[in-house]
Amino acid sequence: MADTMRWFGEYRQALRGLLRRWGLDRDPTLTCQTTYRWLQEFQGDRYDFPTPNHSELMIKRSVN
Q1: Structural domain boundaries enclosing 28
Q2: Nearest residue to 60 (alpha-carbon basis) of 39, 29, 41
Q3: CA dihedral 35, 41, 51, 11 (to 10 degrees)
Q4: What totals of helices (H) and strands (E) does the chain contain, helices first?
Q5: What is the torsional sign of CA 14, 15, 16, 20?
Q6: In angstroms, rounded to a whole number, what is the distance separating the alpha carbons of residues 56 and 34?
Q7: Distance CA 26, CA 31 (A)
Q8: pTM passes above 0.85
Q9: pLDDT of residue 2
Q10: 61 closest CA partner among 49, 19, 27
Q11: Which residues pair with 7 in a beta bridge?
């Protein structure tokens, strides 16, 4: 299975929709950044977060 790569903006947009649907008044950018940091801390062996051109990517590594 190939690694999955998505841009920060893609996740932020998806999170914005979820927060609205759930009726939560949260900043999607801050919430997404917080989620990234938690994943780095607790699932760092499964995710990479390169920052080409000042925009963050999240890459979920395939599990063998």
Answers
A1: 4-60
A2: 39
A3: -20
A4: 2, 3
A5: positive
A6: 13
A7: 7
A8: no
A9: 53
A10: 49
A11: 57
**Using CA atoms, how far apart are residues 8 and 56, in angstroms rounded to an integer?**
5
pLDDT in tens, 10-54: 889 999 999 999 999 999 999 989 988 899 899 888 888 877 777
Give how many domains the chain has, as a whole number.
1
Structure tokens at 35: 């989620």
- Does residue 57 contact residue 5 with C-beta atoms inside 8 Å? yes
63, containing H or E segment = none
Cβ burial of 60 (10 Å; 0-12, 13-18, 19+) is: middle
pLDDT on residue 15: 92
**Which of residues 3 and 62 earns the better pLDDT score?**
62
Residue matched to tokens 């994943």: 39
